[in-house]
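User: I've been going back and forth on whether these two constructs are worth ordering. Before I decide, could you fold them both?

Assistant: Sure. I'll take them in the order you sent them. The first construct and its structure tokens:
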Amino acid sequence: MTRPVHGPTPVDHRAAIAVETGRLVAALEDADLTTPVPSCPGWTLADLDKHTGSVQRWFSSLLHARIQEPPRKREVDLRLPERQEEYADWLADSATVAAQAFAATDPDLPMWAWGVDQHARFWARRMLFETLMHRVDSDLALGRHPTVDRPLAVDGSDEFLVNLPFATSFAPNVAQLRGPDVTIRFHATDDEGNWLVRLRPDGFGLDANPDAAETADATVHGRAADLLLLVYGRLRRDAAV
């Protein structure tokens, strides 16, 4: 499957991770970490913090190892503090661990990845949107309206849709995304984002360089930020208009 070309504003994934982590840390510093996170059922803000920092440290270990095949184990020294009051500082330090891994790794270095892009840069891009979406989750849990910069939203929707067909190993329900050769277009009304998803009997994928004039069986129009929240299940489908 070829990645569609949308011509979005380039995103510095490494720098954006630091920014999004900082926003999440700021949200958690004065919050009650026992607060439930509705968009992650069963989680509290403490769980959200722990998961995000753990992912950053896990991905960083993969980068340092220059993995060339699926990892056989997930053990990594998380250095998670015993007191939840220290979780925010620990999360901030997790972003530092990630920055050190990025500094030591050429983004164009060939590496194994579970998605399309078999280079080290895959892990920085994936880490960014893992962090960003959980920052959104914290906003929702705290009753705030989440905002996402337009370039990040376009890149995030692209990253999600391009890699989703390869996520069945940890998201088995993806295998149920199939249909009798029907198409769904996602159109960002405030940017050039334009994705054409094709559901086939054997699965689904994206059409490369979709023709904007081609009629789809269904089309979802919305701002880039709303489309990102929609595909991640953080926004109802009738709200992305």
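The second construct, handled the same way:
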Amino acid sequence: MPNWLLESERAFVFEQELRKHFYKDSCPLAKDIVKEIIWKRVASNSTLPAKFMRMHFHDCFVNGCDASILLDSTANNQAEKVATPNLSLGGFDVIDEVKTELEKTCPGVVSYADIIALATRDSFQRPLWEVLTSRRDGSISHISDALNNILSPSFNFCILKQSSANKSLTIHDLVVLSGGHTIGVGHFNFFSQRLYNFTPRKNNADPSLNSTYAAFLKTQCKSLSNKITIIPMDPGSPLSFDNNYFKNLKLNQCLFQSDAALLTNNEVTNTVNELLDSQDFFMEFGQSMKRMGVIGVLIGSLGEIRKKCNVVNS
């Protein structure tokens, strides 16, 4: 049996064992505490939804949704957090704030893994999916696992498809979840090759990139040596969670090579066309986020309820 089928069955089992009211008796105010703090912080910092979503993605794609992304390096180990794709992550302080408040109410009960999942969902203007709980925290975090598992902006479609299948996600999930690029920013070093070094000819841009958009990007990022510039992934509404990503994709106005790669597959193109309907996108995004949120979760006697976000329990 292919590995991805085994992973799919495993994810189904975990989804059945994760529960809607897991904290009903042990910490009945848990979800309310998370929601109150997240809503308050998002109200004063509109960049947080993108930060939480990216944190959740990067955590789940490496050893499952176990909050290992929060762990610091030690003298003998470099953790996921210091891998290049994770150096620009943010929102850790808010996750820690939530945990601190939960510990006052019900110490040692709510996992960081559940907090990340809940915080991501609650950061949106309206709840798009239900978060089942009972995840436990992992104790393994290696930089190599992050580098080997996090989807790269330079991936072609075949690699994207296989990487998603390895995590029990379908092509449909891959396309829908790519819609998360409708909020947040892209760092120039992750798409610079598309502007200045796509072929050996100097300053030659990726021909699949809209030429007008490419010209605009070059005004913002004038050379390959630029390592600090950030660009909104959705130039029209960078802080609004909508389906503009797919409209931009159809116009060849997305930043990353991995975005453009989606349109090299006919099945994906059909899905993109369907997701041009905003209601379809919101519904499908919620379903795909639920599936992503159960990747490799630790439940029952597995893992631990970490006391501090950045170190395992002693």
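Notes on the second construct follow. Strands lie at 185-187, 230-232. Residues 1-15 have pLDDT under 50 and may be disordered.
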